[in-house]
Each structure stands twice: as structure tokens, then as C-alpha cells.
Design brief:
Elements lengths: L14 H19 L4 E8 L10 E8 L4 E8 L2 H6 L12 E7 H6 L1 H8 L4 E6 L4 E6 L11 H20 L15 H6 L8 H17 L23 H10 L5 E4 L9 E4 L14 E4 L6 H11 L6 E7 L6 H8 L4 E5 L22 E7 L2 H11 L7 E2 L3
Parallel strand pairs: 3-4, 4-5, 7-8, 7-9, 9-10
Antiparallel strand pairs: 1-2, 2-3, 5-6, 10-12, 11-12, 11-13
Helix pairs in contact: 5-7, 9-10
């Protein structure tokens, strides 16, 4: 089925914006065709080991079930492709490599692209008019001799470790205090990762969490599901919830089922004392759940969605789609529609309502409703969220 897509003028976007849109598209494809065994991560070093040079690939797909690495290099213009001098170095580090071009670049420079790539890499093309990714040319799967499960676990750990350090430093990759004047690469090189047991990895991860907890970093939109630290009472800003109300042609929700501050327009508020998990949900429901309790709220909404004329609208961090509960209740549910908002968003801190929130987190919206198919068509045809909505599949 064809939908009206984003209304941006592709030719007027700068290189960075084009790259971001194409990256999101390939990440979505990994998510849609995969299951819990596949994840996609951005900007990760694939040249692991002590004193190894940094080879950071745009998107890395990890198939945890088959121990397969697939790399994607995003090229939003021919100049970016011509300037890439390192792509062949990836070939001995991953099982497959694909380039992702926008359709205009590929059609204009097909001969040059094919001549340079040969049979070493495959090609995907992104069509901005319908926001779709197409496979143009495949590439042979290549075995990586000597790469065992530890290798793939280390790749993922490097990424998570670098991400944790960046969070500790408030977004910077290098430590800001004199006590920790080390870069991320130096920190990784000082750890004998290949020799670390699972127990040592878990212990090190816990140590990172303790540092974050002491510095007040983390909270509902960072870290893993079981890490319970930071604030849990952030408020949703209007730029996130107002498009949902427009989708349903209403000026307020019937129930805010998980309310800490009554800033969402609603007829009924279930606060912590009422405990929305124990209440009946009906009508148009809004839920921005505590991140460390998200599975309980998703499951509750799935159960309550059988009530007549009930629509459960969730605000969720966009990195939750690989979790089991999201697969079970959202992405594999034909009565659910979901999307990832195109830019990072910020949330309001109680007591600082007049301070503009800082965009710092990817946000997804998921709606469980018997009208999911109708809602998907309306979202895409009217471009309500300026992104594409997907519907769950059995």
C-alpha cells in the first residue's frame, strides 16, 4: 500500500540531515526484518583489540543467533563516497558490507559506484519520496576465520562501554575531570577485554552504573531495563502529546494512566497513589511509563485494549524495540501502530516548567488499538508526526 510520506524537500536538506534520515531508515529495516536475535547499532568500532586503530562503521547489524556482522556505510552524496578511503578495511572485520545511497546519487553515478565497489560490497538505495529502502545488489557472505562468540560479544561490549563513558561525561567522549583524563579508546585499550569472563564483564558493567548513579546520570531514558536510578518523574512536553490528540481529533485524553505531574490535558489522572496498573483503562489513554517498569505498563495496556473504544498511547524510548515485551505486544501485534519521531526530544523536569527541555533522547510512539490500521493510514496520509508509521505483524 502506498502512503504519502514526509513533506521535506530532499534537495534542500544538508548532508548531515540526509545521512540521519537514511540511517534511521536502515535501522528500521533491521528492526522490521529481524527478531530478538538481530540488533542495529550506530557508529561502532569494528576493529577491536588492544592498540588497534579505530574503524567506526555507520551502522552495524549484529545477528546474535548466527554470530554474523553486517555493516552499512551511509552515503548521502557522491562526494562522501569518493572521500571514503577506509571502506575496504572493513571487509576482513565483518561478514558483509553494504553501501546505502540516496536514489538520486545512485542513478546519476551508477557506473562510477559499480566500478569502484565491484563484488566487494552490496548496495541499498533509499527513495526519499516514499521513505523506503531497496536492495539493488547483494554481496556474498564471507566467513571470518578465528571469530568465535567472544569476538561478537566484545564488539557489542565496546559499543556499550563507549556509550556509558559518553553518558558519564555528559555527552563528551573524553573525561572532563583531571582524575579521568583518558579518551574512550585509551580506556578500552587498557582493558584486556578478550580475556574478560562473563562475570568480569558483569562486574565492570555494575561499576559503570555505580559511577552514573553517584553523578546522578541515567534515569528513565538511559541504561538497561533493570538499572533503577535517576529521576522518574519527567513530564511530557506538548510537542510530543499534541500530535496524538490531533490524530484522534480531541483536545484532551480520557485518562493519563501513569501521572506524576498533571501537565497532560486529561479528564482523569491515575497518580502513584491510585496505581494505574490496578485500575481499568478505557477511552483515549495516555501513558508515559517509568522506564524501569515499562514492561508492566505495556502488558497492562495490551490487556486493557480489548475494552470497547479504547486506545492506549505510549511514549517510549526508541531503543526499546529490540526487547521481548515490545516484540510481543507492539511490533508483532496487528492491533498496534508505532513510529519513531524524527528528531531527539527533551522532557520537562518538575519545577523547571519554564525551562525549554533539551533534546537528548530518541522517542517512539506506540498505540494499541483495534483501529490500528485506520490510524496508520491517517498518520501517513496526513503526515501528522512527520515520519512513517508501521503496523504490527503476526
Amino acid at each position: 500500500m502506498a502512503f504519502k510520506r514526509l513533506k521535506y524537500n530532499w534537495k534542500e536538506l544538508n548532508r548531515r540531515d540526509k545521512t540521519d534520515i537514511m540511517t534511521v531508515a536502515i535501522m528500521r529495516q533491521i528492526l522490521m526484518r529481524g527478531n530478538n536475535s538481530r540488533i542495529g547499532i550506530r557508529e561502532v568500532n569494528v576493529n577491536i583489540g588492544k592498540n588497534k586503530s579505530n574503524l567506526r562503521i555507520d551502522v552495524l547489524e549484529i545477528n546474535r543467533q548466527k554470530n554474523v556482522l553486517v555493516g552499512y556505510e551511509i552515503k548521502s552524496c557522491i562526494e562522501d563516497f569518493r572521500a571514503d578511503k577506509k571502506w575496504e578495511k572493513y571487509l576482513n572485520l565483518i561478514n558483509q558490507l553494504y553501501f546505502v545511497f540516496d536514489i538520486n546519487t545512485y542513478e546519476q553515478y551508477t557506473a562510477e559506484i559499480l566500478k569502484r565497489i565491484g563484488d566487494k560490497a552490496g548496495i541499498y538505495v533509499f527513495n526519499p519520496l516514499i521513505e523506503a529502502i531497496y536492495l539493488i545488489m547483494g554481496v556474498t557472505y564471507k566467513e571470518l576465520p578465528g571469530k568465535d562468540e567472544t569476538f561478537y560479544r566484545t564488539i557489542l561490549f565496546n559499543y556499550l562501554f563507549r556509550k556509558a563513558l559518553r553518558e558519564i561525561n555528559g555527552g563528551n567522549t573524553g573525561m572532563t575531570t583531571q582524575e579521568h583524563q583518558i579518551t574512550v579508546r585509551e580506556a578500552i585499550n587498557n582493558i584486556e577485554i578478550q580475556q574478560m569472563t562473563d562475570e568480569e564483564l558483569i562486574a565492570y558493567e555494575k561499576a559503570i552504573k555505580e559511577i552514573k548513579k553517584k553523578r546522578g546520570i541515567g534515569g528513565r531514558y538511559g541504561g538497561e531495563e533493570k538499572y533503577n536510578s535517576g529521576r522518574d518523574d519527567y513530564m511530557t512536553p506538548p510537542d510530543i502529546y499534541e500530535p496524538i490528540l490531533r490524530l484522534f481529533d480531541k483536545d484532551k485524553f480520557d485518562i493519563d494512566v501513569c501521572c506524576t505531574q498533571k501537565n497532560i490535558p486529561a479528564n482523569i489522572y491515575y497518580t502513584k497513589s491510585e496505581n494505574g496498573l490496578l485500575q481499568k483503562w478505557s477511552g483515549l489513554c495516555f501513558c508515559n511509563p517509568p522506564w524501569n517498569k515499562t514492561p508492566y505498563w505495556i502488558k497492562k495496556g495490551f490487556q486493557e485494549s480489548i475494552n470497547p473504544d479504547t486506545h492506549i498511547c505510549y511514549i517510549i524510548p526508541s531503543n526499546r524495540f529490540e526487547t521481548t515485551y515490545m516484540q510481543d505486544y507492539i511490533t508483532n501485534n496487528p492491533n498496534a501502530v508505532w513510529l519513531i519521531l524524527p528528531q531527539k526530544r527533551g522532557f520537562i523536569i518538575p519545577g523547571q516548567e519554564n525551562v525549554p527541555p533539551i533534546p537528548s533522547v530518541g522517542v517512539a510512539i506506540a498505540i494499541i488499538s483495534k483501529d490500528a490500521k485506520i490510524l496508520q493510514e491517517k498518520i501517513n496520509n496526513e503526515n501528522i508526526f512527520k515520519t512513517t508509521a508501521f503496523i504490527g505483524n503476526l
